[in-house]
Amino acid sequence: MQKDDCIFCKLASHEIPTNVVYEDDTVMAFKDTEPLMPVHVLIIPKQHYDSIADDVPGDVLAHVFGIIPKVAKICGIRESGFRLLINTGEDASQSVKHFHVHMLGGGLMPRPNDQDWGRASEAAKKARAEREANKEK
């Protein structure tokens, strides 16, 4: 299934061109248009799932994660290292509601534990409280 209003579905069907790194019948990996690192690739299933929490079948999950070493090798970061990131839902800042994995690499990244989450953490608490208050109305 694909969603007509989903940009990633349009990319997967080649309705919109993109810089494809890897593709097969199940998945597509392409360069992010707003990269956060020298290497920033998105890996998506071609079938639409809103997020990883959207009952994605195990064989699809296995395939998405199974091609990661191949994509890392194609991108030249298999040996130096890379980070995988999956944003799921509003609190995690998922901007495109289509399950996708970010592969980031090509430079040194701080460990999440070493980052100062202070202001972001406080903003997240405030946003959550506002959403909860609005639900109660």
**Order of adjacent strands in the largest pleated sheet:** 1-2-3-5-4
CATH homologous superfamily classification: HIT-like
Structural class: alpha+beta
Structure annotation, total helices: 4
The CATH topology label is HIT family, subunit A
**CATH uppermost class:** Alpha Beta
Q: How do the helices and strands follow one another from N- to C-terminus?
A: HEEEHHEEH
Beta fraction of the residues? 15-25%
The main pleated sheet reads as:
5 strands, antiparallel
How many domains make up the coordinates? 1
Helix percent reads 25-40%
CATH architecture classification name? 2-Layer Sandwich
Radius of gyration: 17 Å
Distance between the termini: 35 Å
Low-pLDDT ranges: none
- The whole-number mean of residue pLDDT values reads 89
Number of strands: 5
Shape: globular
Descriptive report:
It is a single chain. With 137 residues, the chain is an alpha+beta fold. It has one domain (7-136): HIT family, subunit A, CATH 3.30.428.10. The chain is 30% helix and 18% strand. It has a 5-stranded antiparallel beta sheet with strand order 1-2-3-5-4, with helices on one face. The model has no long low-confidence stretch (mean pLDDT 89).
Task: Considering the chains and any ligands shown, give keywords for the structure.
137 residues; alpha+beta; HIT family, subunit A; 5-stranded antiparallel beta sheet
Sum this structure up briefly.
This protein has 137 residues and is an alpha+beta fold. It has helices at residues 7-12, 58-66, 68-74, 118-136; strands at 20-23, 27-31, 39-45, 82-85, 101-105. It has a 5-stranded antiparallel β-sheet, covered by helices on one side.
